[in-house]
Amino acid sequence: MENEQSAVVRATGSMNNAAQEERTKFMADLEGITKIVQTIAQQKQGQSLELLAILRLLERLHQEIRDNFFQEALPDNRQALYALLRDIEMSGGWPYIHRMKLQALLSNFLPEPEESSTQE
Fold first, then answer.
1. What is the model's pLDDT at position 69?
2. Quick one: pLDDT at residue 78?
3. DSSP 8-state class, residue 73
4. Residues 60-119: pLDDT tens digits?
5. What is the pTM of this model?
6. Rounded-to-integer distance, Cα 62 and Cα 34, Å
7. Nearest-5° angle of CA 107, CA 111, CA 116?
8. Chain-centre distance of CA 38, in angstroms?
9. pLDDT tens digits, residue range 26-64?
10. Which letter does DSSP use for residue 1 in this model?
11. Cα 70 to chain center, whole Å?
C-alpha cells in the first residue's frame, strides 16, 4: 500500500513538473513573440503605414485565435466556465484591441488657435 501511495505521489509530482515546464516554455514563447513585435515596431518608428500594418496583423491574429481556437476550447461545464471567467476577471478582463477614434487621429491636423495679437 505504501509503495502504491509513493508511486502516486511521484507520478503526480512528475505531472506537476511536466505541466510547470510546459507553462514555463509557453511563457518564454510569448515573451519571444512580444520582443519580436516590439523590435519591429521600434524599427518602423515614425513610419505610419508600416506601424498600421503591424496593428492590422495583430487584430487579424486576435480574431483568428478567438474564432478558430478559443471558442473551440471554451469549457463545457459550469466549474470550468466559472474558473475561466474568474481568471478573466482577475487578470484584467477580456483581451480587447482598442481602435483609435478618427477624431484623435485628425487632432494632429487641426489648426491650432491663433493668438490674437494686438498692435499698439
1. 96
2. 93
3. G
4. 999 999 999 999 999 999 999 999 999 999 988 888 877 777 777 677 776 666 665 555
5. 0.67
6. 14
7. 135
8. 13
9. 999 999 999 999 999 999 999 999 999 999 999 999 999
10. -
11. 13
Q: Residue holding cell 491663433?
A: 114
Residue with cell 466549474: 79
Q: Do 29 and 23 contact (CB within 8 A), yes or no?
A: no
Residue appearing with cell numbers 496583423 = 57
Domain ranges of the chain: 2-106
CA distance readout (Å), 54 to 2, 3, 46, 118? 58, 56, 13, 49
- For 55, 95, 107, the CA distances from 102, given in Å and listed in that order, are 16, 22, 9
Which three cell numbers mark 56?
492590422
Grid cell 502504491 in the structure block, residue: 4
